[in-house]
Amino acid sequence: MAKQSPKAQYPDVMARPTRHALLNQHVAELLKCRRCPRMKSTPVSGGAIVSDVMIIGQAPGPREPVLQRPFAHTAGKTLFRWFEEFCGMNEGVVRSKIYFAAVCRCFPGKNSSGGDRVPAPDEVRNCSSWMDDEIRILQPRLIIPVGRLAIMQFIDCADVAGDADSFPYRLDRIIGHRFRVTRAEHRFDVIPLPHPSGASPWHKIPPGKALTERALKLIACHPAVAALCGCRRRS
Ligand code: SF4
Q: What is the CATH classification number for the domain harbouring 202?
Protein backbone atom coordinates (compact mmCIF):
# COMPACT_ATOMS: atom_id res chain seq x y z
CA MET A 1 0.00 0.00 0.00
CA ALA A 2 1.32 3.49 -0.89
CA LYS A 3 2.66 5.49 2.08
CA GLN A 4 0.38 8.38 3.07
CA SER A 5 1.75 11.92 2.79
CA PRO A 6 2.28 13.65 6.15
CA LYS A 7 -0.64 15.97 5.38
CA ALA A 8 -2.91 13.00 4.77
CA GLN A 9 -1.60 11.24 7.85
CA TYR A 10 -2.16 14.25 10.11
CA PRO A 11 -5.02 16.25 8.57
CA ASP A 12 -5.52 19.92 9.50
CA VAL A 13 -8.71 19.30 11.41
CA MET A 14 -8.05 16.47 13.83
CA ALA A 15 -10.31 15.50 16.72
CA ARG A 16 -8.65 15.82 20.12
CA PRO A 17 -8.92 12.07 20.99
CA THR A 18 -7.33 11.19 17.63
CA ARG A 19 -4.55 13.64 18.29
CA HIS A 20 -4.03 12.23 21.78
CA ALA A 21 -3.88 8.65 20.49
CA LEU A 22 -1.36 9.65 17.81
CA LEU A 23 0.73 11.55 20.33
CA ASN A 24 0.67 8.66 22.81
CA GLN A 25 1.90 6.34 20.10
CA HIS A 26 4.51 8.89 19.03
CA VAL A 27 5.90 9.27 22.57
CA ALA A 28 6.01 5.49 23.04
CA GLU A 29 8.07 5.18 19.83
CA LEU A 30 10.29 8.12 20.77
CA LEU A 31 11.19 6.54 24.11
CA LYS A 32 12.48 3.47 22.25
CA CYS A 33 14.75 5.50 19.93
CA ARG A 34 18.45 4.56 19.96
CA ARG A 35 19.62 6.23 16.72
CA CYS A 36 22.58 8.10 18.25
CA PRO A 37 25.34 5.85 19.61
CA ARG A 38 27.24 8.72 21.31
CA MET A 39 24.30 9.75 23.50
CA LYS A 40 24.66 8.92 27.20
CA SER A 41 21.04 8.32 28.12
CA THR A 42 17.79 7.08 26.70
CA PRO A 43 15.26 9.71 25.52
CA VAL A 44 13.51 12.03 27.97
CA SER A 45 9.88 13.04 27.36
CA GLY A 46 7.47 15.37 29.10
CA GLY A 47 4.60 13.06 28.15
CA ALA A 48 1.86 13.10 25.54
CA ILE A 49 0.42 16.53 26.33
CA VAL A 50 -1.96 17.65 23.58
CA SER A 51 -1.38 21.40 23.32
CA ASP A 52 -1.31 24.35 20.93
CA VAL A 53 1.97 25.40 22.54
CA MET A 54 5.34 23.65 22.39
CA ILE A 55 8.49 24.42 24.37
CA ILE A 56 11.69 23.27 22.65
CA GLY A 57 14.80 22.83 24.76
CA GLN A 58 18.30 21.96 23.60
CA ALA A 59 18.93 18.54 25.15
CA PRO A 60 18.54 17.03 28.61
CA GLY A 61 21.30 17.41 31.18
CA PRO A 62 22.47 14.54 33.40
CA ARG A 63 19.58 14.92 35.90
CA GLU A 64 16.66 14.80 33.49
CA PRO A 65 17.04 11.12 32.49
CA VAL A 66 17.13 10.19 36.19
CA LEU A 67 14.13 12.35 37.09
CA GLN A 68 12.39 11.41 33.83
CA ARG A 69 11.24 14.87 32.86
CA PRO A 70 12.66 17.79 30.85
CA PHE A 71 13.92 20.96 32.57
CA ALA A 72 14.09 19.09 35.87
CA HIS A 73 17.04 20.97 37.39
CA THR A 74 18.57 24.48 37.55
CA ALA A 75 17.48 25.77 34.13
CA GLY A 76 13.98 24.47 34.80
CA LYS A 77 13.75 26.42 38.05
CA THR A 78 14.35 29.67 36.17
CA LEU A 79 12.12 28.71 33.24
CA PHE A 80 9.19 27.84 35.49
CA ARG A 81 9.73 30.99 37.59
CA TRP A 82 9.45 33.02 34.38
CA PHE A 83 6.17 31.32 33.47
CA GLU A 84 4.79 31.79 36.99
CA GLU A 85 5.75 35.46 37.09
CA PHE A 86 4.65 36.47 33.60
CA CYS A 87 1.91 33.97 32.66
CA GLY A 88 0.52 33.05 36.08
CA MET A 89 1.24 29.36 35.39
CA ASN A 90 3.14 27.35 37.99
CA GLU A 91 5.39 24.41 37.09
CA GLY A 92 2.63 21.83 37.42
CA VAL A 93 0.32 23.80 35.16
CA VAL A 94 3.03 24.41 32.56
CA ARG A 95 3.95 20.71 32.51
CA SER A 96 0.32 19.65 32.20
CA LYS A 97 -0.66 22.19 29.52
CA ILE A 98 2.38 22.58 27.24
CA TYR A 99 4.13 19.94 25.15
CA PHE A 100 7.87 19.72 25.85
CA ALA A 101 10.23 18.76 23.08
CA ALA A 102 13.94 19.28 22.49
CA VAL A 103 16.42 19.47 19.65
CA CYS A 104 17.85 16.19 20.98
CA ARG A 105 16.01 14.04 23.50
CA CYS A 106 18.98 12.23 25.03
CA PHE A 107 21.76 13.48 27.32
CA PRO A 108 24.80 14.10 25.08
CA GLY A 109 27.36 13.69 27.89
CA LYS A 110 30.01 16.17 28.99
CA ASN A 111 32.50 18.14 26.89
CA SER A 112 36.22 18.38 27.68
CA SER A 113 35.70 21.45 29.89
CA GLY A 114 33.06 19.74 32.01
CA GLY A 115 29.97 21.41 30.56
CA ASP A 116 27.18 19.56 28.78
CA ARG A 117 28.25 18.60 25.24
CA VAL A 118 26.33 20.42 22.49
CA PRO A 119 24.69 17.81 20.25
CA ALA A 120 26.53 17.24 16.97
CA PRO A 121 24.90 18.08 13.61
CA ASP A 122 24.27 14.39 12.81
CA GLU A 123 22.49 13.95 16.16
CA VAL A 124 20.37 17.06 15.53
CA ARG A 125 19.46 15.66 12.11
CA ASN A 126 18.65 12.24 13.59
CA CYS A 127 16.31 13.78 16.14
CA SER A 128 14.60 16.32 13.89
CA SER A 129 12.06 13.84 12.54
CA TRP A 130 10.63 13.44 16.04
CA MET A 131 10.00 17.18 16.23
CA ASP A 132 8.58 17.30 12.71
CA ASP A 133 6.09 14.57 13.56
CA GLU A 134 5.12 16.39 16.77
CA ILE A 135 4.40 19.54 14.75
CA ARG A 136 2.31 17.51 12.29
CA ILE A 137 0.32 15.89 15.10
CA LEU A 138 -0.15 18.93 17.33
CA GLN A 139 -0.27 21.67 14.66
CA PRO A 140 0.81 24.18 17.33
CA ARG A 141 -0.06 27.87 17.21
CA LEU A 142 3.04 28.84 19.18
CA ILE A 143 6.50 27.32 19.57
CA ILE A 144 8.89 28.63 22.23
CA PRO A 145 12.49 27.62 21.49
CA VAL A 146 14.71 27.98 24.54
CA GLY A 147 18.38 28.72 23.92
CA ARG A 148 20.59 29.13 20.89
CA LEU A 149 20.50 25.62 19.44
CA ALA A 150 16.70 25.44 19.70
CA ILE A 151 16.23 28.92 18.21
CA MET A 152 18.45 27.98 15.26
CA GLN A 153 16.07 25.15 14.33
CA PHE A 154 13.37 27.71 13.51
CA ILE A 155 15.01 31.02 12.64
CA ASP A 156 17.71 31.77 10.11
CA CYS A 157 19.89 33.65 12.55
CA ALA A 158 22.29 34.86 9.86
CA ASP A 159 19.32 36.43 8.13
CA VAL A 160 17.92 38.09 11.25
CA ALA A 161 21.06 38.91 13.18
CA GLY A 162 23.76 39.23 10.55
CA ASP A 163 26.81 37.00 10.70
CA ALA A 164 25.76 33.66 12.17
CA ASP A 165 29.07 33.44 14.03
CA SER A 166 28.14 36.51 16.01
CA PHE A 167 24.76 35.04 16.96
CA PRO A 168 25.42 34.55 20.68
CA TYR A 169 26.16 38.28 20.87
CA ARG A 170 23.17 39.32 18.75
CA LEU A 171 20.43 37.78 20.84
CA ASP A 172 19.07 41.32 21.05
CA ARG A 173 17.79 40.94 17.46
CA ILE A 174 16.02 37.68 18.31
CA ILE A 175 14.79 37.78 21.90
CA GLY A 176 11.75 39.97 22.48
CA HIS A 177 10.43 39.41 18.95
CA ARG A 178 7.79 37.18 17.43
CA PHE A 179 8.45 35.35 14.17
CA ARG A 180 6.18 33.54 11.71
CA VAL A 181 7.72 30.20 10.74
CA THR A 182 6.80 27.23 8.57
CA ARG A 183 8.06 23.76 9.42
CA ALA A 184 6.65 20.31 8.70
CA GLU A 185 4.06 21.86 6.36
CA HIS A 186 2.62 23.93 9.21
CA ARG A 187 2.78 27.68 9.91
CA PHE A 188 3.01 28.96 13.48
CA ASP A 189 4.37 31.74 15.70
CA VAL A 190 7.80 31.48 17.30
CA ILE A 191 8.77 33.51 20.38
CA PRO A 192 12.33 32.61 21.41
CA LEU A 193 13.70 32.69 24.94
CA PRO A 194 17.35 32.74 26.03
CA HIS A 195 18.62 29.66 27.80
CA PRO A 196 17.77 29.98 31.49
CA SER A 197 20.79 28.00 32.70
CA GLY A 198 23.30 29.72 34.95
CA ALA A 199 25.97 29.23 32.27
CA SER A 200 25.18 32.53 30.54
CA PRO A 201 24.32 35.76 32.37
CA TRP A 202 22.75 37.28 29.21
CA HIS A 203 19.17 37.17 30.55
CA LYS A 204 20.22 38.82 33.83
CA ILE A 205 21.99 41.94 32.54
CA PRO A 206 21.12 44.76 30.09
CA PRO A 207 19.89 44.53 27.41
CA GLY A 208 19.08 40.83 27.90
CA LYS A 209 17.03 41.32 31.06
CA ALA A 210 14.58 43.76 29.47
CA LEU A 211 14.41 41.76 26.22
CA THR A 212 13.73 38.53 28.10
CA GLU A 213 10.90 40.26 29.96
CA ARG A 214 9.57 41.55 26.65
CA ALA A 215 9.63 38.02 25.21
CA LEU A 216 7.82 36.66 28.27
CA LYS A 217 5.14 39.34 27.95
CA LEU A 218 4.70 38.41 24.28
CA ILE A 219 4.28 34.78 25.36
CA ALA A 220 1.80 35.68 28.11
CA CYS A 221 -0.28 37.72 25.67
CA HIS A 222 -0.22 35.14 22.89
CA PRO A 223 -3.77 33.82 22.35
CA ALA A 224 -2.59 30.19 22.48
CA VAL A 225 -1.07 30.69 25.94
CA ALA A 226 -3.93 32.81 27.23
CA ALA A 227 -6.34 30.06 26.13
CA LEU A 228 -4.51 27.38 28.11
CA CYS A 229 -5.81 28.43 31.50
CA GLY A 230 -7.07 31.98 31.36
CA CYS A 231 -3.73 32.98 32.78
CA ARG A 232 -2.98 36.34 34.34
CA ARG A 233 -1.33 38.73 31.91
CA ARG A 234 1.10 41.52 32.62
CA SER A 235 1.03 44.58 30.42
S1 SF4 B 1 18.95 12.08 20.42
FE2 SF4 B 1 16.99 11.76 19.39
S3 SF4 B 1 17.45 10.60 17.53
FE4 SF4 B 1 19.22 10.44 18.91
S5 SF4 B 1 18.84 8.53 20.07
FE6 SF4 B 1 18.02 10.25 21.30
S7 SF4 B 1 15.86 10.36 20.69
FE8 SF4 B 1 16.90 9.15 19.14
A: 3.40.470.10
